[in-house]
Amino acid sequence: MANLRYLRQKDKTYIFHSFGNSELENPGKINFKRFPMPDEVFPYSQMDALMGSDTMKHFDGSPKSQEKLIAKIMVTLADNHESQRTNFRRFMDVCVESFSDLAFDGREIRTVQEFFDSFPEDAAYLIAYEALAYSKDMDLFTMEEKKSWGPDEGFSDTATVT
């Protein structure tokens, strides 16, 4: 019988390394409420389809219709390009519970809102990028053969997860 076991489970409190934070005596920490699933992404917008749009349904070849089509193509290209980028604000809103031991310019940072309102955009991006990379690291598991225990030991022979 198979027995699934943890080898390494990620800690929900993460000390980020950016800007020498991890070298400090009391480093800033990111406290996760949850980690994203492996296939979970945080795009800026959803992919937009041109062919099924109202613009294509009502296209009649007239100059006004052609103008609308060109505008729709430009908006669709921009939206689809933007959707390939990670929305770090959205990731942090969904996955981060709080910050601890973190301040900027004399102001204590505890929430995601305070983090993005206080930190310069490039600094917030770098820290959020690092947090996302950490959150996507997989926990490690192993599958072992479970010994069949008899009733004397008080165990059944069903699979267990520890």
Question: How is this structure best described in words?
Answer:
35% of the residues lie in helices and 18% in strands. The protein contains five helices and seven strands. Helix 3 (88-95) packs across helix 5. The chain has a three-stranded antiparallel sheet. A two-stranded antiparallel sheet has the order 1-7. It has helices at 54-57, 63-83, 88-95, 112-118, 121-136, and strands at residues 2-8, 13-15, 29-32, 96-100, 103-104, 107-108, 140-145. The protein is of the alpha+beta class. The chain folds into two domains: 10-42 and 86-139, no CATH class; 54-83.
**Could you describe the largest sheet, including whether it forms a barrel?**
3 strands, antiparallel
Question: Would you list the SSEs in sequence order as H and E?
Answer: EEEHHHEEEHHE
The proportion of residues forming helix, as a percent range, comes to 25-40%
Structural class: alpha+beta
Beta-strand content bin: 15-25%
Count of helical segments? 5
| Alpha-carbon distance between the two ends | 14 Å
The count of DSSP E runs of length 2 or more, i.e. the number of strands, is 7
Number of structurally distinct domains: 2
Provide the residue-averaged pLDDT.
Answer: 83
Strand order of the largest sheet: 2-3-4
* Sequence stretches where pLDDT stays below 50 over 5 or more residues: 153-160
Envelope shape: flat
Rounded to the nearest angstrom, the radius of gyration is 24 Å
